[in-house]
Amino acid sequence: MLKKHSVLVGILAATVLLIMATHFYPGGAMADKNSVGFDWTQNFISNLFGEKAINGHENLARYWAYAGMVFLSLSLTVFFVQFSFKIPHKGSGMIVRYLGSLGMLFTFLIVTPLHDLMVVLFSTLFLVCLFYITVFIFKTKQHFLKLLCVICLLIFYTTLYLYGAGAFDILPAMQKLTFVSVISLVVTLQYRCTL
Fold it and tell me: What are the two backbone dihedrals, phi and then psi, of residue 25, each rounded to the nearest 5 degrees?
């Protein structure tokens, strides 16, 4: 029973922990260094990981955020491993299994000072895996999943473009939208996909 729902349980735990972290974040954002608390449209999730908040106060949110990232990374690793066995082509399944698992290691390392490099590595590996999954979804008659895969890819690529272009005014909101689209896709694939 736990194995069947481990991805969902882990994602729910990660989400709860990250939301808890936002409640403990003292404040400060790029737009206003003196703001109080976590603003979903102005703060990045990575703001939760620092020893000090942007406003200079001790950041008690980081412990909750670290725990959330552990659960998120482990949950997505389990997803990629389990989903890889659904893929009918052995080589493609291995790519999803191993690159997805490696990408989740980089996801956890986003909490370190190597944040920017880890974002690039995680995003590259995640998108390769998502592309492979999308190709196999397109070979099925599961039209809703096809649409969900395309939407997730478009949102993710748009967010990466904004990140690279330095569009930091809307990037925090896009980051959360990307998170929601990825989680929605992963949970839907976990329970509704048959290849």
Answer: -70, 125
